[in-house]
Amino acid sequence: MSSQNRAVAGSSVIVAVDQGTSATKALIMNAAGDILGRAHVSLTQQHPQPGWVEQDPLAIRDSVISAIGHSLKASDSKSVLGIGLSTQRESIMIWDRATGQPLGPILGWQDRRTARRAKDLLSQGAGPLVERVSGLPIDPMFSALKLQWLLDSVDPDRRLSLGGKIAAGTVDSWLVFCLTGQHRIEAGNASRTQLMNLETVDWDADLLDLFRVPTLVLPEIVASNEPSGPLTVSEAAGAPVCAVLGDSHSALYAHGVREPGTVKATYGTGSSIMGLLTVAAQSAPLDGLVRTLAWHDGAPRYAFEGNILATGATAMWLAQVFEADVAHLDSLARTVESSGGVNIVPAFAGLGAPWWDERAEASISGFNLGTSGAHLARAAFESIALQIEDVLAVAEKSISTPIRSVLADGGPSSNSWLMQLQSDLSQRTVLRSNVPDLSALGVAHMAAIQSGLCSADDIEVVPRSRTEVRPQMTAAEASARKLSWSRAVARARWTPPAETGFGDLHHASLASAAKGTGT
User: Fold this and answer.
1) Nearest Cα to Cα of residue 423 among 469, 458, 370
2) Parallel, antiparallel or unpaired: strands 184-186 and 220-222
3) How confident is the model over 219-273, as pLDDT tens digits?
4) Rounded to whole angstroms, how far apart are CA atoms 307 and 337?
5) CB 241 within 8 A of CB 179
6) pTM for this entry
7) Do the beta carbons of residue 347 and residue 383 sit within 8 Å?
8) Cα separation of 126 and 238, whole Å?
Protein backbone atom coordinates (compact mmCIF):
# COMPACT_ATOMS: atom_id res chain seq x y z
CA MET A 1 0.00 0.00 0.00
CA SER A 2 1.28 3.49 -0.79
CA SER A 3 2.24 5.87 2.03
CA GLN A 4 -0.61 8.18 1.01
CA ASN A 5 -3.11 5.36 1.44
CA ARG A 6 -1.62 4.32 4.78
CA ALA A 7 -2.34 7.80 6.04
CA VAL A 8 -6.08 7.50 5.39
CA ALA A 9 -6.48 3.79 6.13
CA GLY A 10 -6.03 3.06 9.82
CA SER A 11 -9.38 1.80 11.05
CA SER A 12 -11.24 3.27 8.05
CA VAL A 13 -13.53 1.05 6.02
CA ILE A 14 -15.73 0.91 2.97
CA VAL A 15 -19.36 -0.24 3.25
CA ALA A 16 -20.45 -2.08 0.10
CA VAL A 17 -24.13 -2.81 -0.50
CA ASP A 18 -25.43 -5.34 -3.02
CA GLN A 19 -29.11 -4.62 -3.59
CA GLY A 20 -30.74 -7.55 -5.42
CA THR A 21 -34.22 -8.81 -6.15
CA SER A 22 -34.42 -11.30 -3.27
CA ALA A 23 -32.15 -9.66 -0.70
CA THR A 24 -29.97 -6.71 0.19
CA LYS A 25 -26.50 -7.63 1.40
CA ALA A 26 -23.78 -5.45 2.88
CA LEU A 27 -20.15 -6.04 3.71
CA ILE A 28 -17.40 -4.03 5.42
CA MET A 29 -13.94 -3.99 3.79
CA ASN A 30 -10.75 -2.54 5.23
CA ALA A 31 -7.59 -1.34 3.47
CA ALA A 32 -6.11 -4.85 3.41
CA GLY A 33 -9.14 -6.16 1.53
CA ASP A 34 -10.36 -8.10 4.59
CA ILE A 35 -14.11 -8.50 5.13
CA LEU A 36 -14.84 -7.38 8.68
CA GLY A 37 -18.60 -7.80 8.78
CA ARG A 38 -21.64 -8.80 6.74
CA ALA A 39 -25.38 -8.30 6.85
CA HIS A 40 -28.33 -9.76 4.94
CA VAL A 41 -31.90 -8.48 4.67
CA SER A 42 -34.45 -10.58 2.77
CA LEU A 43 -36.92 -9.02 0.33
CA THR A 44 -40.04 -10.18 -1.45
CA GLN A 45 -41.58 -9.61 -4.86
CA GLN A 46 -45.23 -9.15 -5.72
CA HIS A 47 -46.96 -10.70 -8.74
CA PRO A 48 -50.37 -8.98 -9.01
CA GLN A 49 -50.98 -10.46 -12.47
CA PRO A 50 -49.29 -13.15 -14.57
CA GLY A 51 -46.04 -11.73 -15.94
CA TRP A 52 -46.07 -8.76 -13.55
CA VAL A 53 -43.15 -8.42 -11.11
CA GLU A 54 -43.15 -5.61 -8.59
CA GLN A 55 -41.26 -4.57 -5.46
CA ASP A 56 -41.91 -2.02 -2.75
CA PRO A 57 -39.54 0.98 -3.15
CA LEU A 58 -39.71 1.85 0.54
CA ALA A 59 -38.92 -1.74 1.56
CA ILE A 60 -35.84 -1.66 -0.66
CA ARG A 61 -34.76 1.70 0.78
CA ASP A 62 -35.23 0.46 4.34
CA SER A 63 -33.39 -2.80 3.60
CA VAL A 64 -30.32 -0.84 2.48
CA ILE A 65 -30.31 1.39 5.55
CA SER A 66 -30.78 -1.67 7.77
CA ALA A 67 -28.02 -3.66 6.04
CA ILE A 68 -25.56 -0.77 6.39
CA GLY A 69 -26.34 -0.47 10.10
CA HIS A 70 -26.16 -4.18 10.86
CA SER A 71 -22.91 -4.69 8.94
CA LEU A 72 -21.25 -1.81 10.81
CA LYS A 73 -22.38 -3.22 14.15
CA ALA A 74 -21.06 -6.67 13.19
CA SER A 75 -17.65 -5.21 12.40
CA ASP A 76 -17.37 -2.59 15.19
CA SER A 77 -16.26 -0.17 12.47
CA LYS A 78 -16.70 3.53 13.12
CA SER A 79 -14.78 5.41 10.43
CA VAL A 80 -16.59 4.96 7.09
CA LEU A 81 -14.69 6.52 4.20
CA GLY A 82 -17.34 5.78 1.61
CA ILE A 83 -20.18 3.64 0.35
CA GLY A 84 -20.28 1.37 -2.70
CA LEU A 85 -23.61 0.43 -4.26
CA SER A 86 -24.12 -2.62 -6.47
CA THR A 87 -27.71 -2.86 -7.65
CA GLN A 88 -30.20 -4.77 -9.74
CA ARG A 89 -30.27 -2.98 -13.05
CA GLU A 90 -33.28 -2.65 -15.36
CA SER A 91 -35.85 -2.35 -12.55
CA ILE A 92 -37.32 1.17 -12.49
CA MET A 93 -39.75 3.43 -10.63
CA ILE A 94 -41.07 6.99 -10.41
CA TRP A 95 -41.52 9.25 -7.38
CA ASP A 96 -42.73 12.70 -6.36
CA ARG A 97 -39.74 15.00 -6.81
CA ALA A 98 -40.77 17.30 -3.94
CA THR A 99 -41.77 14.76 -1.29
CA GLY A 100 -39.72 11.74 -2.34
CA GLN A 101 -42.79 9.52 -2.08
CA PRO A 102 -43.06 6.67 -4.61
CA LEU A 103 -45.77 7.08 -7.24
CA GLY A 104 -46.04 3.35 -7.82
CA PRO A 105 -44.09 0.14 -7.36
CA ILE A 106 -40.69 -0.72 -8.71
CA LEU A 107 -41.25 -2.69 -11.89
CA GLY A 108 -38.72 -5.52 -11.70
CA TRP A 109 -36.36 -6.46 -14.50
CA GLN A 110 -38.34 -9.71 -14.98
CA ASP A 111 -41.63 -7.82 -15.47
CA ARG A 112 -43.25 -8.59 -18.86
CA ARG A 113 -46.38 -6.40 -18.79
CA THR A 114 -45.03 -4.32 -21.70
CA ALA A 115 -44.73 -7.26 -24.11
CA ARG A 116 -47.53 -5.99 -26.36
CA ARG A 117 -45.96 -2.55 -26.63
CA ALA A 118 -42.60 -4.14 -27.47
CA LYS A 119 -44.26 -6.15 -30.23
CA ASP A 120 -45.91 -2.99 -31.62
CA LEU A 121 -42.60 -1.12 -31.74
CA LEU A 122 -40.91 -4.02 -33.50
CA SER A 123 -43.72 -4.24 -36.06
CA GLN A 124 -43.29 -0.50 -36.67
CA GLY A 125 -39.63 -1.07 -37.53
CA ALA A 126 -38.13 0.64 -34.48
CA GLY A 127 -35.81 -2.26 -33.63
CA PRO A 128 -32.74 -1.30 -35.68
CA LEU A 129 -32.66 2.30 -34.40
CA VAL A 130 -33.02 1.26 -30.77
CA GLU A 131 -30.36 -1.43 -31.00
CA ARG A 132 -27.92 0.78 -32.92
CA VAL A 133 -28.15 3.67 -30.45
CA SER A 134 -28.61 1.85 -27.11
CA GLY A 135 -26.94 -1.49 -27.87
CA LEU A 136 -30.06 -3.29 -26.64
CA PRO A 137 -32.91 -5.07 -28.46
CA ILE A 138 -36.49 -3.99 -27.87
CA ASP A 139 -37.62 -6.25 -25.05
CA PRO A 140 -39.75 -5.84 -21.89
CA MET A 141 -36.66 -6.60 -19.78
CA PHE A 142 -35.18 -3.14 -20.29
CA SER A 143 -36.33 -0.03 -18.45
CA ALA A 144 -37.67 2.21 -21.22
CA LEU A 145 -40.94 0.34 -21.80
CA LYS A 146 -41.49 0.01 -18.04
CA LEU A 147 -40.94 3.72 -17.52
CA GLN A 148 -43.37 4.54 -20.32
CA TRP A 149 -45.97 2.29 -18.66
CA LEU A 150 -45.48 3.96 -15.26
CA LEU A 151 -45.76 7.46 -16.72
CA ASP A 152 -48.85 6.48 -18.73
CA SER A 153 -50.44 5.29 -15.49
CA VAL A 154 -49.75 8.45 -13.47
CA ASP A 155 -49.13 11.19 -16.02
CA PRO A 156 -50.68 10.18 -19.37
CA ASP A 157 -50.43 13.66 -20.89
CA ARG A 158 -46.95 14.20 -19.36
CA ARG A 159 -48.05 17.52 -17.84
CA LEU A 160 -46.63 16.63 -14.41
CA SER A 161 -43.40 15.33 -15.96
CA LEU A 162 -42.88 18.47 -18.03
CA GLY A 163 -43.64 20.56 -14.96
CA GLY A 164 -40.78 18.98 -13.05
CA LYS A 165 -43.07 17.20 -10.57
CA ILE A 166 -41.96 13.61 -11.27
CA ALA A 167 -38.57 11.97 -10.90
CA ALA A 168 -37.68 8.60 -12.40
CA GLY A 169 -34.80 6.27 -11.89
CA THR A 170 -33.41 2.76 -11.65
CA VAL A 171 -32.73 1.23 -8.24
CA ASP A 172 -29.30 2.85 -7.91
CA SER A 173 -30.82 6.24 -8.72
CA TRP A 174 -33.61 5.77 -6.16
CA LEU A 175 -31.16 4.72 -3.45
CA VAL A 176 -28.78 7.63 -4.04
CA PHE A 177 -31.77 9.97 -3.91
CA CYS A 178 -32.96 8.43 -0.64
CA LEU A 179 -29.49 8.48 0.93
CA THR A 180 -28.23 11.88 -0.29
CA GLY A 181 -31.11 13.77 -1.91
CA GLN A 182 -29.30 13.85 -5.28
CA HIS A 183 -31.03 12.74 -8.50
CA ARG A 184 -28.34 10.94 -10.51
CA ILE A 185 -27.69 7.61 -12.19
CA GLU A 186 -24.47 5.67 -12.77
CA ALA A 187 -23.51 5.39 -16.45
CA GLY A 188 -23.55 1.58 -16.59
CA ASN A 189 -27.03 1.43 -15.08
CA ALA A 190 -28.14 4.22 -17.44
CA SER A 191 -27.00 2.09 -20.36
CA ARG A 192 -29.50 -0.60 -19.27
CA THR A 193 -32.49 1.75 -19.51
CA GLN A 194 -32.47 1.66 -23.33
CA LEU A 195 -32.65 5.47 -23.26
CA MET A 196 -28.92 6.23 -23.27
CA ASN A 197 -26.78 6.72 -26.36
CA LEU A 198 -23.81 4.37 -25.91
CA GLU A 199 -21.51 6.59 -27.95
CA THR A 200 -22.25 9.91 -26.23
CA VAL A 201 -23.01 8.44 -22.76
CA ASP A 202 -26.01 10.77 -22.55
CA TRP A 203 -29.79 10.53 -22.89
CA ASP A 204 -30.74 10.20 -26.55
CA ALA A 205 -33.43 12.53 -27.93
CA ASP A 206 -34.72 10.02 -30.51
CA LEU A 207 -35.11 7.25 -27.92
CA LEU A 208 -36.79 9.59 -25.43
CA ASP A 209 -39.26 10.59 -28.12
CA LEU A 210 -39.91 6.99 -29.16
CA PHE A 211 -40.69 5.90 -25.59
CA ARG A 212 -42.44 9.18 -24.63
CA VAL A 213 -40.09 9.93 -21.72
CA PRO A 214 -39.51 13.65 -21.01
CA THR A 215 -35.90 14.51 -20.22
CA LEU A 216 -37.00 16.39 -17.11
CA VAL A 217 -37.93 13.19 -15.25
CA LEU A 218 -34.53 11.60 -15.75
CA PRO A 219 -31.49 11.79 -13.46
CA GLU A 220 -28.08 13.15 -14.38
CA ILE A 221 -25.74 10.49 -15.78
CA VAL A 222 -22.47 10.32 -13.82
CA ALA A 223 -19.32 8.20 -13.86
CA SER A 224 -19.25 4.99 -11.86
CA ASN A 225 -16.73 6.46 -9.41
CA GLU A 226 -18.18 9.99 -9.16
CA PRO A 227 -18.57 10.73 -5.41
CA SER A 228 -21.97 11.86 -4.23
CA GLY A 229 -22.78 14.31 -1.49
CA PRO A 230 -22.75 12.98 2.08
CA LEU A 231 -25.34 10.48 3.26
CA THR A 232 -28.02 12.13 5.34
CA VAL A 233 -29.46 8.89 6.74
CA SER A 234 -28.16 5.55 8.08
CA GLU A 235 -25.31 4.85 10.45
CA ALA A 236 -22.88 5.86 7.70
CA ALA A 237 -24.28 9.42 7.59
CA GLY A 238 -21.68 11.91 6.44
CA ALA A 239 -19.84 9.50 4.14
CA PRO A 240 -20.29 9.84 0.36
CA VAL A 241 -21.32 7.18 -2.13
CA CYS A 242 -17.93 6.66 -3.81
CA ALA A 243 -18.86 4.09 -6.44
CA VAL A 244 -21.95 2.59 -8.07
CA LEU A 245 -22.11 -0.42 -10.41
CA GLY A 246 -24.78 -2.69 -11.80
CA ASP A 247 -24.59 -6.07 -10.07
CA SER A 248 -23.30 -8.02 -13.05
CA HIS A 249 -20.81 -5.25 -13.90
CA SER A 250 -19.59 -5.27 -10.31
CA ALA A 251 -18.98 -9.03 -10.44
CA LEU A 252 -16.89 -8.56 -13.60
CA TYR A 253 -14.87 -5.87 -11.82
CA ALA A 254 -14.38 -8.09 -8.76
CA HIS A 255 -13.02 -10.88 -10.95
CA GLY A 256 -10.22 -8.48 -11.85
CA VAL A 257 -11.21 -8.28 -15.52
CA ARG A 258 -9.76 -5.07 -16.96
CA GLU A 259 -8.99 -6.13 -20.54
CA PRO A 260 -10.94 -7.95 -23.29
CA GLY A 261 -10.61 -11.70 -23.67
CA THR A 262 -11.96 -12.97 -20.36
CA VAL A 263 -15.63 -13.91 -19.90
CA LYS A 264 -17.60 -14.35 -16.69
CA ALA A 265 -20.93 -16.05 -16.03
CA THR A 266 -23.03 -14.96 -13.06
CA TYR A 267 -25.51 -17.59 -11.83
CA GLY A 268 -28.70 -16.50 -10.11
CA THR A 269 -32.43 -16.39 -10.74
CA GLY A 270 -31.40 -15.49 -14.27
CA SER A 271 -27.86 -15.35 -15.59
CA SER A 272 -25.52 -12.82 -17.15
CA ILE A 273 -22.56 -13.69 -19.36
CA MET A 274 -20.29 -10.69 -19.83
CA GLY A 275 -16.87 -9.69 -21.12
CA LEU A 276 -15.14 -6.47 -22.11
CA LEU A 277 -15.07 -5.48 -25.79
CA THR A 278 -12.08 -4.41 -27.82
CA VAL A 279 -12.20 -0.89 -29.27
CA ALA A 280 -12.73 -2.36 -32.74
CA ALA A 281 -15.77 -4.36 -31.58
CA GLN A 282 -17.52 -1.60 -29.63
CA SER A 283 -19.79 -0.55 -32.49
CA ALA A 284 -19.98 -3.87 -34.36
CA PRO A 285 -23.27 -5.84 -34.34
CA LEU A 286 -23.27 -8.76 -31.94
CA ASP A 287 -25.48 -11.66 -32.99
CA GLY A 288 -27.79 -12.53 -30.09
CA LEU A 289 -25.82 -10.43 -27.57
CA VAL A 290 -26.15 -6.87 -26.37
CA ARG A 291 -23.63 -4.05 -26.11
CA THR A 292 -23.53 -2.25 -22.79
CA LEU A 293 -21.39 0.07 -20.70
CA ALA A 294 -19.49 -1.99 -18.14
CA TRP A 295 -18.33 1.01 -16.10
CA HIS A 296 -17.02 4.55 -16.47
CA ASP A 297 -13.98 5.35 -14.31
CA GLY A 298 -12.59 8.28 -16.27
CA ALA A 299 -13.35 6.67 -19.60
CA PRO A 300 -16.22 4.41 -20.69
CA ARG A 301 -15.44 0.68 -20.78
CA TYR A 302 -17.75 -1.28 -23.06
CA ALA A 303 -18.85 -4.89 -22.76
CA PHE A 304 -20.91 -7.53 -24.49
CA GLU A 305 -23.52 -9.38 -22.50
CA GLY A 306 -25.94 -12.24 -22.85
CA ASN A 307 -28.93 -12.05 -20.50
CA ILE A 308 -30.73 -15.33 -19.74
CA LEU A 309 -34.13 -14.84 -18.15
CA ALA A 310 -34.51 -18.10 -16.21
CA THR A 311 -31.69 -20.30 -14.92
CA GLY A 312 -31.86 -20.74 -11.14
CA ALA A 313 -35.53 -19.83 -11.40
CA THR A 314 -36.09 -23.09 -13.29
CA ALA A 315 -34.83 -25.20 -10.40
CA MET A 316 -36.88 -23.13 -7.96
CA TRP A 317 -40.02 -23.64 -10.06
CA LEU A 318 -39.60 -27.41 -10.37
CA ALA A 319 -38.83 -27.72 -6.67
CA GLN A 320 -42.15 -26.02 -5.94
CA VAL A 321 -43.92 -28.42 -8.29
CA PHE A 322 -42.39 -31.31 -6.36
CA GLU A 323 -43.35 -29.58 -3.08
CA ALA A 324 -39.70 -29.68 -2.06
CA ASP A 325 -36.74 -27.34 -1.92
CA VAL A 326 -33.92 -26.84 -4.40
CA ALA A 327 -31.52 -28.85 -2.24
CA HIS A 328 -33.82 -31.88 -2.54
CA LEU A 329 -34.11 -31.34 -6.29
CA ASP A 330 -30.33 -31.23 -6.53
CA SER A 331 -29.96 -34.50 -4.62
CA LEU A 332 -32.59 -36.13 -6.81
CA ALA A 333 -30.88 -34.98 -10.02
CA ARG A 334 -27.59 -36.57 -8.99
CA THR A 335 -29.14 -40.05 -8.78
CA VAL A 336 -29.25 -40.39 -12.58
CA GLU A 337 -26.42 -40.08 -15.09
CA SER A 338 -28.52 -38.35 -17.76
CA SER A 339 -31.89 -36.70 -18.22
CA GLY A 340 -33.09 -39.75 -20.15
CA GLY A 341 -33.86 -37.66 -23.23
CA VAL A 342 -35.89 -35.05 -21.30
CA ASN A 343 -35.44 -31.35 -22.09
CA ILE A 344 -36.92 -28.48 -20.10
CA VAL A 345 -36.86 -25.21 -22.03
CA PRO A 346 -37.69 -22.57 -19.37
CA ALA A 347 -39.27 -19.94 -21.61
CA PHE A 348 -41.58 -18.86 -18.80
CA ALA A 349 -41.64 -15.34 -20.25
CA GLY A 350 -40.08 -16.03 -23.62
CA LEU A 351 -36.36 -16.53 -24.14
CA GLY A 352 -33.59 -14.00 -23.64
CA ALA A 353 -30.11 -14.28 -25.13
CA PRO A 354 -29.13 -15.45 -27.61
CA TRP A 355 -32.66 -15.80 -29.06
CA TRP A 356 -34.55 -12.77 -27.72
CA ASP A 357 -37.81 -14.47 -28.57
CA GLU A 358 -40.84 -13.12 -26.72
CA ARG A 359 -43.10 -15.74 -28.34
CA ALA A 360 -41.17 -18.82 -27.22
CA GLU A 361 -43.17 -21.06 -24.90
CA ALA A 362 -41.93 -23.06 -21.93
CA SER A 363 -41.85 -26.76 -22.71
CA ILE A 364 -40.95 -30.18 -21.38
CA SER A 365 -40.20 -32.72 -24.09
CA GLY A 366 -38.65 -36.14 -24.56
CA PHE A 367 -40.37 -37.83 -21.62
CA ASN A 368 -41.97 -41.26 -21.69
CA LEU A 369 -43.43 -43.86 -19.32
CA GLY A 370 -39.96 -44.56 -17.97
CA THR A 371 -39.26 -40.92 -17.08
CA SER A 372 -38.80 -40.34 -13.36
CA GLY A 373 -38.70 -37.28 -11.16
CA ALA A 374 -34.92 -37.63 -11.12
CA HIS A 375 -34.79 -37.26 -14.92
CA LEU A 376 -36.90 -34.10 -14.72
CA ALA A 377 -34.70 -32.73 -11.94
CA ARG A 378 -31.54 -33.34 -13.94
CA ALA A 379 -33.10 -31.76 -17.04
CA ALA A 380 -33.82 -28.61 -15.00
CA PHE A 381 -30.18 -28.28 -13.95
CA GLU A 382 -28.93 -29.15 -17.42
CA SER A 383 -31.09 -26.34 -18.83
CA ILE A 384 -29.01 -23.89 -16.77
CA ALA A 385 -25.71 -25.09 -18.22
CA LEU A 386 -27.08 -25.49 -21.76
CA GLN A 387 -28.53 -21.97 -21.89
CA ILE A 388 -25.22 -20.53 -20.70
CA GLU A 389 -23.36 -22.57 -23.31
CA ASP A 390 -25.71 -21.22 -26.01
CA VAL A 391 -24.57 -17.70 -25.09
CA LEU A 392 -20.89 -18.66 -24.82
CA ALA A 393 -20.98 -20.23 -28.27
CA VAL A 394 -22.52 -17.10 -29.80
CA ALA A 395 -20.09 -14.85 -27.92
CA GLU A 396 -17.13 -16.84 -29.19
CA LYS A 397 -18.26 -16.25 -32.77
CA SER A 398 -19.15 -12.59 -32.24
CA ILE A 399 -15.84 -11.56 -30.67
CA SER A 400 -13.80 -13.88 -32.93
CA THR A 401 -11.86 -15.14 -29.91
CA PRO A 402 -11.87 -18.65 -28.46
CA ILE A 403 -13.40 -18.84 -24.97
CA ARG A 404 -11.50 -21.66 -23.34
CA SER A 405 -12.30 -20.77 -19.73
CA VAL A 406 -15.18 -19.07 -17.95
CA LEU A 407 -15.14 -17.21 -14.63
CA ALA A 408 -18.16 -18.27 -12.58
CA ASP A 409 -19.84 -16.51 -9.68
CA GLY A 410 -23.24 -16.13 -8.00
CA GLY A 411 -25.02 -18.30 -5.44
CA PRO A 412 -25.63 -21.40 -7.60
CA SER A 413 -21.96 -21.46 -8.65
CA SER A 414 -21.15 -22.85 -5.19
CA ASN A 415 -22.77 -26.09 -6.38
CA SER A 416 -19.72 -28.14 -7.48
CA TRP A 417 -21.89 -30.66 -9.32
CA LEU A 418 -23.52 -27.88 -11.38
CA MET A 419 -20.11 -26.41 -12.22
CA GLN A 420 -18.94 -29.86 -13.40
CA LEU A 421 -22.08 -30.09 -15.51
CA GLN A 422 -21.29 -26.68 -17.00
CA SER A 423 -17.73 -27.66 -17.80
CA ASP A 424 -18.83 -30.98 -19.32
CA LEU A 425 -21.56 -29.59 -21.56
CA SER A 426 -19.54 -26.54 -22.57
CA GLN A 427 -16.27 -28.45 -22.97
CA ARG A 428 -14.58 -25.47 -21.35
CA THR A 429 -12.69 -24.95 -18.10
CA VAL A 430 -14.78 -23.29 -15.40
CA LEU A 431 -12.97 -21.11 -12.86
CA ARG A 432 -15.36 -20.75 -9.96
CA SER A 433 -14.86 -17.89 -7.54
CA ASN A 434 -14.58 -19.09 -3.96
CA VAL A 435 -15.37 -15.60 -2.67
CA PRO A 436 -19.02 -14.99 -1.72
CA ASP A 437 -20.84 -11.74 -2.46
CA LEU A 438 -18.74 -10.92 -5.51
CA SER A 439 -21.19 -8.23 -6.66
CA ALA A 440 -20.67 -6.36 -3.39
CA LEU A 441 -16.92 -6.92 -3.51
CA GLY A 442 -16.46 -5.39 -6.97
CA VAL A 443 -18.03 -2.08 -6.03
CA ALA A 444 -16.14 -2.21 -2.70
CA HIS A 445 -12.90 -2.34 -4.68
CA MET A 446 -13.88 0.62 -6.86
CA ALA A 447 -15.07 2.63 -3.84
CA ALA A 448 -11.83 1.84 -1.99
CA ILE A 449 -9.78 3.23 -4.87
CA GLN A 450 -11.94 6.33 -5.23
CA SER A 451 -11.91 7.10 -1.49
CA GLY A 452 -8.15 6.66 -1.18
CA LEU A 453 -8.44 3.64 1.11
CA CYS A 454 -6.49 1.57 -1.47
CA SER A 455 -4.67 2.20 -4.72
CA ALA A 456 -5.56 0.55 -8.00
CA ASP A 457 -2.33 -1.45 -7.70
CA ASP A 458 -3.38 -2.66 -4.24
CA ILE A 459 -6.67 -3.95 -5.65
CA GLU A 460 -4.97 -5.67 -8.59
CA VAL A 461 -2.95 -7.89 -6.23
CA VAL A 462 -5.84 -8.80 -3.92
CA PRO A 463 -5.97 -12.65 -3.88
CA ARG A 464 -8.83 -14.04 -5.95
CA SER A 465 -9.41 -17.59 -4.78
CA ARG A 466 -10.83 -19.87 -7.51
CA THR A 467 -11.57 -23.54 -8.05
CA GLU A 468 -10.75 -24.98 -11.48
CA VAL A 469 -13.21 -27.42 -13.02
CA ARG A 470 -12.25 -29.28 -16.19
CA PRO A 471 -14.48 -31.35 -18.54
CA GLN A 472 -14.89 -35.03 -17.71
CA MET A 473 -17.49 -35.76 -20.41
CA THR A 474 -16.26 -36.58 -23.91
CA ALA A 475 -16.74 -34.03 -26.68
CA ALA A 476 -18.98 -36.50 -28.56
CA GLU A 477 -21.26 -36.94 -25.53
CA ALA A 478 -21.49 -33.18 -25.06
CA SER A 479 -22.32 -32.63 -28.73
CA ALA A 480 -25.10 -35.22 -28.65
CA ARG A 481 -26.64 -33.61 -25.56
CA LYS A 482 -26.46 -30.13 -27.10
CA LEU A 483 -28.08 -31.35 -30.31
CA SER A 484 -31.03 -32.74 -28.36
CA TRP A 485 -31.29 -29.40 -26.52
CA SER A 486 -31.16 -27.38 -29.76
CA ARG A 487 -34.05 -29.37 -31.19
CA ALA A 488 -36.07 -28.77 -28.01
CA VAL A 489 -35.41 -25.02 -28.21
CA ALA A 490 -36.48 -25.08 -31.86
CA ARG A 491 -39.80 -26.65 -30.88
CA ALA A 492 -40.31 -24.11 -28.07
CA ARG A 493 -39.78 -21.27 -30.57
CA TRP A 494 -42.01 -22.65 -33.33
CA THR A 495 -44.83 -20.33 -34.43
CA PRO A 496 -48.21 -21.86 -35.36
CA PRO A 497 -49.43 -21.46 -38.96
CA ALA A 498 -52.21 -19.09 -37.86
CA GLU A 499 -49.58 -16.58 -36.73
CA THR A 500 -47.06 -16.82 -39.56
CA GLY A 501 -49.06 -18.11 -42.48
CA PHE A 502 -46.58 -20.86 -43.10
CA GLY A 503 -45.82 -22.38 -39.70
CA ASP A 504 -42.04 -22.05 -39.91
CA LEU A 505 -39.48 -21.29 -37.24
CA HIS A 506 -38.83 -17.72 -36.19
CA HIS A 507 -35.26 -17.47 -37.47
CA ALA A 508 -33.11 -19.29 -39.98
CA SER A 509 -30.42 -19.64 -37.33
CA LEU A 510 -32.72 -21.81 -35.26
CA ALA A 511 -33.58 -23.95 -38.27
CA SER A 512 -29.91 -24.72 -38.70
CA ALA A 513 -29.62 -25.44 -34.98
CA ALA A 514 -32.44 -27.98 -35.21
CA LYS A 515 -30.51 -29.75 -37.97
CA GLY A 516 -27.48 -29.93 -35.74
CA THR A 517 -25.41 -27.20 -37.41
CA GLY A 518 -25.52 -24.81 -34.47
CA THR A 519 -26.51 -24.42 -30.83
Assistant:
1) 469
2) parallel
3) 999 999 999 999 998 888 889 999 999 999 999 999 988 888 789 999 988 899 9
4) 29
5) yes
6) 0.85
7) no
8) 46
